[in-house]
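Page header: ASSEMBLY MODEL / two components / 474 residues total.
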Amino acid sequence: MVKKENLLVRSGLHMPTHIELNGNTEAIVDGCGGVLEYDTDVVRIRTGKLIVRFTGRDLVIKCLTADSLVVTGYFTGIEFLV
Amino acid sequence: MLSLKITRWCLGYVRFSVTGGSPERFFNYCARSGIILWNITSRSSSSAFVASGLYRALRPLARKAGCRLRVRERHGLPFLLRRMRTHRGIVYGAAAFAVILILLSLRVWCVDVTGNTTLDSRAVLSALAENGVSPGTRIAAVDTKRVEQKLMLMFPKIRWMTINTQGCMMQVCIQEKTEQPQIVEQNGVCNVKASATGQVTAIRVYAGTAQVNLGDAVAQGQLLVSGVVEDALGGSTFVHASAEIIAETSRSCEIRIPLRQTLREPTGTHVVRRSLQLFGADFPLTMIGKPKGNYDVSGTQTDVKLFGTLLPVSLYEEVWNGMQAKSVEISRQQAIVKAKEKLLEYEKSLPGDAKILSSDVSDRIEQEVLIYSASLKCEENIAEESEILIKS
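Prediction written out in full:
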């Protein structure tokens, strides 16, 4: 099976994951491997070899595709777990 | 974002709830299958939105994740149309409204002519119709520049014109030419001659040499004032003779009034025909054909306006009055009254400065015709300029 590459890899930027933050209310993650945990106060996602954990209030996944997602809400913390 | 919302609404979308199993796994399966979900809410009351066409594809993925799906809300055009299926009249009405609105917005509703003072609006409208601008014409098919040029050639009185398209209304703005004033020729050399036979009662010479005296009798065409002026040394110069020669003239006229006349009288029968004009097409409102026989017809067109804007609807009413020819014999007195009326008209048609001093009238009957003769004594200016042609 041919592995799908994210937008950054396809565009020549060999970064496995690209996270864009708009203040503390929106995070756009490109190169996401899947949702591991999802609740109103925590969203845990797989990004290549790392796991990123968003904590906060009223967290909502606005959009979810095969390799990207948009998380909105009020973030109080972002953790990178190896 | 608005375009995305509109697209989703047009295609239709559903909100569904996810219960049991692992919602995260289910969302991951969806993402990997290429099914885009949005507004995904959390585990406590897990739900998401998906395009209505893809909802069926979620079921095997939900089964795989051990979840149960239930549709909570349906949004968008396909569901709206499905709800409307029982009210077909509304759907057809809305469709007909949309079609009529689109079709009508592409066509000329009315043509309004403004700015014309002496030109007849009907003539302009008729010329516009000949050139393809009339109610019902497709707006895109009207080449305004070409029509403007053609109309300016057809009506030389038009100085400037423009055709403005205001929505479905064609406004034709016209500016007419200012008439060129009549230029009195003062440069050429001329004599003054008598325009009528008469006796001179007053002479006022502005330029030239008078050839007649007060009380002289003059014949038509006789030289009154010469354009050749001699000076004290015997030299002569040519001038543009100008004078006012008042003379007593006599005019006669003969008016013939037949005593047996054929008059057209109304029979009392009248027929009214009404029609509705919509986009230039006539729709009869009364099922009455054109009456045959001797009728006089008159028509009235009533245009419909809404807030001052002319609409493409007008009501046309024709009134046909039955007439009959009747032979009547009038008395001598009646004939004289008619003859006097005609004489008054003749007097009014005399030159403006002519003053009637006296009139002598007589009447006689010949072969059932009253002949009313009038001999008028007038006082008028008989000076008429006559150019002198000089060969050089």
